[in-house]
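Appendix C: a fully annotated inverse folding record. The material below is reproduced so that readers can follow the format used throughout the book. The structure is listed first as tokens, followed by the designed sequence.
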């Protein structure tokens, strides 16, 4: 190998290392760390998994059953939107569903989605109330201008859901 080829090969390796480390640094300081900082303020929530994809970061979290979801969580999306940009993240709760919660959610999801997509937000509320009462599940529901926050409780198990409200045309 000539001296010139060695210099080119070394330059290529150094350039790739710098670019790869720069990308990793960007991901950590501009994506992972802001998410961790926001979620660590929520003492009852722990991050289980974080997957960074082009354009969106998916975060799986686990919440303690006694987590005051409706009072505390609605601040989290606002903070994440400020840090990362709107639509650049998705949080899903991995708290297990009981058979009753699963069956109730399967029945209510269509009414909830229909209400969100048509702008008939009272349909969301009435659907959740009707089906939660049918299965004797305590629930909490909160809507703001961007999300629907829902928690269903069955005994000592609580299941959480955050759903984005699509712009109604």
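Designed amino acids, in order:
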């Amino acid at each position: 190998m000539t001296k010139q080829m060695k210099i080119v090969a070394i330059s290529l390796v150094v350039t790739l290392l710098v670019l790869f480390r720069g990308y990793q640094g960007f991901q950590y300081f501009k994506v992972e760390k802001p998410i961790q900082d926001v979620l660590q303020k929520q003492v009852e929530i722990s991050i289980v998994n974080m997957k960074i994809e082009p354009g969106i970061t998916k975060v799986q979290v686990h919440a303690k059953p006694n987590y005051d979801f409706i009072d505390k969580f609605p601040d989290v999306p606002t903070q994440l939107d400020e840090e990362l940009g709107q639509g650049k993240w998705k949080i899903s709760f991995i708290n297990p569903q009981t058979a009753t919660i699963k069956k109730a959610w399967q029945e209510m999801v269509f009414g909830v989605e229909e209400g969100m997509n048509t702008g008939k937000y009272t349909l969301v509320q009435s659907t959740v109330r009707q089906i939660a009462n049918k299965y004797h599940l305590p629930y909490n529901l909160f809507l703001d201008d961007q999300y629907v926050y829902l928690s269903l409780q069955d005994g000592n198990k609580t299941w959480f859901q955050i759903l984005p409200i699509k712009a109604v045309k």
